[in-house]
């Protein structure tokens, strides 16, 4: 057991005091080691006390799962969180990020930032002397993809060779699923209407990171996308900041709904995933979301465990 713990520590220690801005900031060994630590924390086989460390939360976008999971993760690690809502701090009055980042680095031990621009997140990282975590930007949602692949590993036992078909908008969740999946040997297919495909640069980046024979592909036909799928994944058709496009997108995406017709085309035993919140009856039916094949609430729970593992590592708890 001591040998196993030592091996885990040797793989994860390099992440101490590091930023997590993109799924590509980790390698496959580190991701799998984080999963192992997350499972130990989840089952109570491992306890880590960070000694009253402080995580600052800067959230420009609404949040339930991300906010609460980070707060609970820090509490379980013996630490605490400080809500740095831009509306009630000087950020809302235009204080430069380079000033805010340097000041908060003197008060907090890490920052989790949920904002629109990846560039803004990177500016915080440039000026901070503490770890910065991507809690969601318009480009990526890397903490979500960690929870997703931990959930898939728990279900199938193995990640290499798993076929994941994502149906819907080629958004930040799709981007992180491709990047993280490529490193874990998962075959990721992103199926979107024409004009709503995933960022071509992210697709090429994911392909360049491919390990264990992982295949990354893009298509526009949801019926073909279901062939051999073991994981059916979807997300809202209009992300935060795109609400004015909602009605327009409903018409364009109407054939990209995860319903019984699509589910029957997937492999027997396929699971259904959604990062939540869900618009029941739009991107996914009530029947699909509440079915025995649905693992959406396992995903939501695993946000807590992977983020607890990540924070423990970044803050020197392992």
Map the helices and strands:
Elements lengths: L1 H11 L15 H16 L10 E6 L5 H12 L3 E4 L13 H11 L2 E5 L3 H10 L4 E3 L7 H15 L6 E5 L4 H13 L2 E5 L8 H9 L7 E4 L2 H4 L5 E4 L11 H7 L7 H4 L7 E4 L11 H4 L6 H19 L4
Parallel strand pairs: 1-2, 1-3, 3-4, 5-6, 5-8, 6-7, 8-9
Helix pairs in contact: 2-13, 3-13, 4-5, 6-7, 6-13, 7-8
Describe this structure in words.
- This protein has 318 residues and is an alpha/beta fold.
- The protein folds into 2 domains: 8-140 and 302-314, Aspartate/ornithine carbamoyltransferase (Rossmann fold); 147-299, Aspartate/ornithine carbamoyltransferase (Rossmann fold, 3-Layer(aba) Sandwich), CATH 3.40.50.1370.
- The chain has helices at 2-12, 28-43, 65-76, 97-107, 118-127, 142-156, 172-184, 200-208, 222-225, 246-252, 260-263, 286-289, 296-314; strands spanning 54-59, 80-83, 110-114, 132-134, 163-167, 187-191, 216-219, 231-234, 271-274.
- The strands form 2 sheets. A 5-stranded parallel beta sheet has the order 7-6-5-8-9.
- Helix 6 (142-156) crosses helix 7 (172-184) and helix 6 (142-156) crosses helix 13.
- The longest helix is centred in the C-terminal third of the chain and has 19 residues, at 296-314.
């Amino acid at each position: 057991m001591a040998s196993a713990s030592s091996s885990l520590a040797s793989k994860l220690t390099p992440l101490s005091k590091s930023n997590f801005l993109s799924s590509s900031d980790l390698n496959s060994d580190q991701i799998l080691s984080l999963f192992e630590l997350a499972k130990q924390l989840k089952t109570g086989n491992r306890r880590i006390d960070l000694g009253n460390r402080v995580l600052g939360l800067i959230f420009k976008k609404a949040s339930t799962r991300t906010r609460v999971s980070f707060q609970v993760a820090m509490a379980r690690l013996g630490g605490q969180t400080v809500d740095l809502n831009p509306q009630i701090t000087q950020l809302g009055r235009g204080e430069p990020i380079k000033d805010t980042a340097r000041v908060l680095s003197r008060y907090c031990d890490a920052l989790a930032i949920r904002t629109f621009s990846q560039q803004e997140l990177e500016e915080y990282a440039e000026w901070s002397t503490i770890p910065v975590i991507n809690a969601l930007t318009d480009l990526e949602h890397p903490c979500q993809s960690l929870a997703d692949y931990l959930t898939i590993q728990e279900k199938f036992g193995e990640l290499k060779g798993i076929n994941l078909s994502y149906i819907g908008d080629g958004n930040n969740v799709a981007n992180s699923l491709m990047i993280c999946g490529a490193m874990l040997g998962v075959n990721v297919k992103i199926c979107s209407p024409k004009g709503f495909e995933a960022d071509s640069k992210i697709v090429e980046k994911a392909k360049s990171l491919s390990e264990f024979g992982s295949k990354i592909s893009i298509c526009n036909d949801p019926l073909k996308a279901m062939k051999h799928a073991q994981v059916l994944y979807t997300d809202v058709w209009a992300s935060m900041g795109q609400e004015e496009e909602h009605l327009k997108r409903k018409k364009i995406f109407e054939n990209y709904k995860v319903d019984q017709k699509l589910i029957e085309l997937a492999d027997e035993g396929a699971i259904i995933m959604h990062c939540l919140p869900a618009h029941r009856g739009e991107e996914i039916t009530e029947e699909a979301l509440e079915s025995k094949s649905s693992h959406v609430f396992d995903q939501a729970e695993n946000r807590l465990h992977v983020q607890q593992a990540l924070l423990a590592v970044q803050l020197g708890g392992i």
